[in-house]
Amino acid sequence: MASVHADEPGPLAEVGRLMRMSAEAPLGEVTVTQRLLAMAPARGDHHALVGGPADPPCGYADLAATVCAAAAGLARRGLQPRDAIGVYVPDAACYALAAHAIRAAGGVPTPVGRRLTVTEIAGQLTDCGARMLLTAPPLAAAALAAADRSWVRQVISFGEAAGTIQFCTLLGSGTLRPAAGPAHGPALLPYARLPDGTLGPVPLDISGVLRRLETEAGLCERDVVLAAPPAGDGRSYTTLLDHALLCGATVVAVRAEELAAAAELHHGTALIAEDDAAAGAPGRLRVFTVAS
Q1: Is residue 157 a contact partner of residue 96, using CB atoms and an 8 Å limit?
Q2: Cα–Cα distance, 118 to 292 (Å, whole number)
């Protein structure tokens, strides 16, 4: 991941100023991303994301700087408040960076399921009016094919992929104060399979789910949360990732077949994964399952 490093005092000082301003916003207008980024600078180099584009590990201060810089880049490319932006990525680190950069710029991430066909992806993007799509290899080819069948005009990729705009080019044009909005406003636009077999938008009270997780999940900054690739319609996956980061935990992006090795290597304490992947997880992990 291209990021702003802690030895660059100018950008981090500006991010810190913006985070302090966000923390002082009226409670009813603080978004999930504002909460995360307001907490991030104080956590400094404590690892936020490991794996995926965040290699070497990305600390919380770098996460805040990267998200604010990427948000400015998205705004420069035309993202407007309340715009729906597709997120079709293969790992948790890409997902967290994409979702929070979109939110920080005032947009609404719409997660795209990895098991959808190109036609279904195009249909979802068209239905929500998305003009941008964030992706990464090895999903970039399908992303471009779906973009050609929808209103999407800009496909942005974590990693090199022909025909896409590199995520790193979003950085370097300054930072953007994270957009405010009502706490009950849309922080996510998930699409689920409806009874008739079609895809349609489904409501999500993300603030309510996060409040419940705060009392029930038991995560803290000492936890190392292994996160399998994005799964399902994004509702539970997104809220679990958000909760882990809000708690100050370290999120490690892993492939399903790597769970046992990753748990040993990173001293994992918890897991976010689909039922079938979670079934083979080491017994010491607290498991948070995500519907397929």
Answers
A1: no
A2: 18
Distance in angstroms (rounded) separating the CA atoms of residues 186 and 85: 13
- The per-residue pLDDT for range 184-224, each reduced to its tens digit, is 457 899 999 999 999 999 988 888 999 999 999 999 999 99
Kindly tell me the number of DSSP H helices and DSSP E strands found in the chain. Answer: 10, 13
DSSP labels for 155-187? EEESS--TTSEEGGGGSSS---PPPP--TTS-S
Q: What is the pLDDT of residue 29?
A: 61
| Dihedral sign of CA atoms 50, 54, 55, 57 in order | negative
Burial class (CB in 10 A: 0-12, 13-18, 19+), 201: middle
Q: Which two tokens stand for residue 19?
A: 């985070």
Residue 126 pLDDT exceeds 60: yes
Residues in the chain: 292
> Which stretch of 57-61, 115-119, 134-138, 183-187 has the lowest confidence by average pLDDT?
183-187
Which stretches of the chain are DSSP H helices?
9-23, 32-43, 60-76, 92-104, 118-128, 140-148, 206-216, 235-246, 259-266, 275-278
Domains and CATH numbers, the chain: 63-201 (3.40.50.980)
139-170 pLDDT, tens digit per residue, is 999 999 999 999 999 999 999 999 999 999 99
Which pTM was predicted? 0.88
Residue 204: which of 241, 245, 228, 233 has the closest Cα? 233
Q: Which has the closest alpha carbon to 92: 104, 100, 83, 84?
A: 100
User: What sign for the dihedral angle of Cα 255, 169, 19, 212?
Assistant: negative
**Token output for 251:** 């999120």
